[in-house]
Design a protein that fits this description.
This protein is mainly α and about 130 residues long. Helix content is about 80%, strand content about 0%. The protein has one domain.
C-alpha cells in the first residue's frame, strides 16, 4: 500500500469520526437546531426518532474511531466501516422525499450524503483490497 493511500484512509477516517461526532451531538443534545437547519421548523418529534438517529451516528463514531486506531494492523475494520456507511445510502433520499419542508441546506446535505457515503465506502474497500494484497 502506498503512503498516499494510507494518508487518504487516515484522513477519511478522521473526517468521518468528526462528522459523526458533530451529527450525533447535534441530534442528541440540540435537536431543535437540527430542525431549524434542515427544516426551518420547530422541533416536534414525540417518538424521539431524531435522537434515535443521533444514537446511530454515535455508534458510527465508535466503530470509525476503532477503525482509525486499528486498521493498519487489522485491515478488516475498513470493510466494516464501509458497510456501516452504506447502511445510510437510501435513508437520506427517503427523508428528503418524505419531509414536509426542507431548507436549501437540508436539500443539499440530504441529496449529497448518499453519494458521498458510496464514495467513502469505495475508498475504504479499495484500501482494504490494497492492504490485503501486499
Amino acid at each position: 500500500m502506498t503512503s498516499k493511500l494510507k494518508v487518504t484512509i487516515y484522513l477519511l477516517l478522521v473526517f468521518l469520526v468528526l462528522l459523526d461526532i458533530f451529527l450525533a451531538t447535534l441530534c442528541l443534545f440540540s435537536p431543535e437546531t437540527w430542525f431549524r437547519l434542515f427544516h426551518d421548523a420547530p422541533y416536534i418529534d414525540p417518538q424521539g426518532l431524531l435522537r434515535r438517529t443521533g444514537a446511530v451516528w454515535a455508534a458510527f463514531t465508535l466503530f470509525q474511531l476503532i477503525a482509525l486506531l486499528k486498521w493498519q494492523r487489522q485491515p478488516y475494520w475498513l470493510p466494516l466501516v464501509a458497510g456501516i456507511r452504506l447502511t445510510e445510502v437510501f435513508s437520506d433520499w427517503v427523508y428528503l422525499y418524505m419531509a414536509e419542508s426542507t431548507t436549501w441546506f437540508g436539500k443539499i446535505g440530504l441529496f449529497i450524503a448518499p453519494l458521498t457515503n458510496v464514495l467513502f465506502a469505495c475508498i475504504l474497500l479499495w484500501g482494504y483490497r490494497r492492504t490485503t494484497k501486499s
